[in-house]
Design goal:
The longest helix is centred in the C-terminal third of the chain and has 18 residues, at 128-145. The chain is an alpha+beta fold. It has one domain: Jelly Rolls. It is built from 3 helices and 12 strands; from the N terminus they run βββββββββααβββα. The two termini are 23 Å apart. The strands form 3 sheets. The chain has a 5-stranded antiparallel β-sheet with strand order 8-7-10-5-12. A 4-stranded antiparallel β-sheet has the order 1-2-3-4, with no helix packed on it.
């Protein structure tokens, strides 16, 4: 169902151009979710998020990626989720335009490799950061190939993210963790007065 929403676009600040599309469906292995996509017809800004129908879940998920088979484990990442690979000190926090997505572990690792490759392009070969970035890239690619071991963590203060695999561990977030995490964009469409 698509609905025009009477709010100002958070990107271009034009009134009356924001539409919201919502769709509820059964996502295999995740259960019923509502996908909400907000689009501005004026500037093209778009935001997508997933909300579980049965309420928020635990906020911390982790899995040890110690085999190539685990690359196929499903991931649902909401716009409020921080993703970490602690062994490499890598973290992606939700920003102002963060969107949710569904993928697998390999898809998350590929997103990290793309980001590292982008950094490498901007560095010169003699730069110490170039070598460090090359090492990060090697570790990520080796994990995708199944010859290296890394841990993937999802930290979601809104409890909307999940790893679907029998080897995944989950727990509630600690208060000190919640205090340090960003919750991503606050979209005015979702505010209730």
């Amino acid at each position: 169902m698509q609905t025009k929403v009477d709010v100002r676009c958070p990107q271009c600040h034009v009134d009356g151009q924001v539409s919201m599309l919502s769709m509820s469906s059964e996502i295999p292995y995740f259960g019923e979710h509502t996908q909400i996509t907000v689009i501005c017809d004026s500037c093209g800004w778009k935001h997508t998020d997933f909300i579980p129908s049965d309420g928020d879940k635990v906020g911390f998920w982790s899995i040890l990626i110690d085999s190539q088979e685990k690359n196929s484990a499903r991931i649902i990442r909401s716009s409020s989720c921080t993703i970490r690979i602690p062994e490499l000190d890598l973290e992606v926090s939700p920003g102002g335009s963060s969107s949710g997505y569904i993928t697998n572990i390999e898809g998350v690792l590929v997103r990290f490799t793309d980001a590292v490759r982008s950094v490498i392009r901007d560095l010169e070969e003699g730069d110490p950061d170039f070598l460090a970035a090359q090492d990060l890239l090697h570790s990520l690619l080796s994990t995708i190939e199944g010859s290296d071991v890394l841990t993937l963590e999802l930290l979601d203060p809104r409890g909307r993210s999940q790893i679907i695999n029998e080897d995944a561990d989950s727990r509630d977030l600690y208060e000190w963790e919640i205090a340090t995490l960003s919750t991503g964009p606050d979209i005015p469409v979702f505010e209730i007065d």
